[in-house]
Amino acid sequence: MDFNEHTATEAVQNSFSETPDVRLQELLNTLTRHLHAFVREARPSVQEWEQAIEFLTAVGQTCTDTRQEFVLLSDVLGVSMLVETLNEQEGGTESTVLGPFHMVESPPRALGDTIDLVGEAEPCVVSGRVLSTDGTPLPHAEVDVWQCNEKGFYDVQQPGSQPSGNGRGLFRADAEGRFRFRTIVPSHYPIPTDGPVGRLLKATRRHPYRPAHIHFIVQAPGYMPLTTHIFVAGSPYLDSDAVFAVKQGLIVDFAESDDEEAAARNGVQAPFRHAEFDLVLSAERAA
Amino acid sequence: MDFNEHTATEAVQNSFSETPDVRLQELLNTLTRHLHAFVREARPSVQEWEQAIEFLTAVGQTCTDTRQEFVLLSDVLGVSMLVETLNEQEGGTESTVLGPFHMVESPPRALGDTIDLVGEAEPCVVSGRVLSTDGTPLPHAEVDVWQCNEKGFYDVQQPGSQPSGNGRGLFRADAEGRFRFRTIVPSHYPIPTDGPVGRLLKATRRHPYRPAHIHFIVQAPGYMPLTTHIFVAGSPYLDSDAVFAVKQGLIVDFAESDDEEAAARNGVQAPFRHAEFDLVLSAERAA
Lengths: 287, 287
Prior knowledge:
Two copies of one chain form a homodimer. The first copy, chain A, has two domains: 8-66, no CATH class; 79-281, Protocatechuate 3,4-Dioxygenase, subunit A, CATH 2.60.130. In chain A, 26% of the residues lie in helices and 20% in strands. Chain A has seven helices and twelve strands. In chain A, the strands form three sheets. In chain A, strands 1, 4, 10, 11 and 12 form a five-stranded mixed β-sheet that branches. In chain A, strands 3-2-7-8-9 form a five-stranded mixed β-sheet, with no helix packed on it. In chain A, helix 1 packs antiparallel against helix 2 (22-42). Chain A is globular and about 80 Å long. At the A-B interface, helix 1, helix 2, helix 3, helix 4 and helix 5 of A face helix 1, helix 2, helix 3, helix 4 and helix 5 of B.
């Protein structure tokens, strides 16, 4: 029978019937059904479909070693957050999107080190513990951190003016699961608007801003890895993050402190800001 | 309320609420609903979603001035054909996909000219009429033609060994709507398999072949443009086209002929092949 509106989905699904990888076949069959349902409902003209193809091509071609425009597209359509949410660890710290800026490996640093290689903004101490859901500290947990600077730019966005590795650090918690590092308070910032995703936001009158945050990937043997942010309380755009990543439980107070003794203990000068919170991992499920 | 599995779609749709272009807003809202439904049902792991992003990025980065891998992806998922089918002209010749090889303008040629600039394979005459659905000839209709050679390659795939414009021609029908050109019988061929779409076909054990065909775009003032192929009767893969484009009504006999007089009249030597068919356009609908 000819390929038509009614036979299309089955014809394409049949073409995948010899796929050796059962999960791949399931994903492709489900994708085909939903993609065709979208096309049947939206009824794009041939020209509209050509525009969609051109848009997706431009998204791919905007990607470089230090820029991932398809992650950005997935982010602004809420898909990255949806995938994170569906994979969330039960009982642990809430997860949120990886984002497009974890493109380089964070340099290993010692506890207490600073990730601010420039030193021009107000110092900030970030500290806390890595715990299991029952409150047990997780000794020597790995804490991978990355953030933008006080102007809202990641190091990879300003290779000329920021040192490589600025705002990034790979830490190992101590024997009591404690982590501590120095930094500066990150700024809210716009996601890159000079590519096709920026054009999409402009065409839909959406602002491109993300509230201020620090990224974390936390890992410990026997526990599920956690990808999350902490958000700076009081930052603009907490209620309209361009990538839908804010969860109320991830907003942390970056408190101003004049405590000279605490400043000295943390290797900074008062006044300084201090964010203190725990990162909670769920145990791996038995296979 | 936090972004979660249940609030995700509404949150993203709300972000599009200020879109000035009503059609764009409708397309994005429909896309968001179907895309999120796919993710909710398929429940991709974070790693699977990363693989999907990497795949789409590679598809975009495989595109060049002479190669459109996203069209190819749309083709092998049956989406291009579905879009064509939903936009089909009623009563006219059936349409089928544009395909990824209409990337250069066809050189204007006179009726009867050959589009085979090499001259090494058996000659073929293609002729017919451009008609309206009531059988009225459409004088001076534009007939844009492109095809691969007898080995299955388009000119743009072999810039070193095929002359530019080989297998392509832009013709204007005569005052009675008749068109006629010389060529060679195209071969069935594999779609390009050295990119990410090829890897998808391999992973799903799908063959990459398309049955032999000649592409047409036909236009006449006051009529809907027609994008179609004619398929060579008897070609392999007529029942399993990698891009789902075959319709029974588009299969044409490329008859062998020994008729010396007909050969001379058409500017070829016997024996030759001859395909004769009409291309029927529907009138534009009133606005």
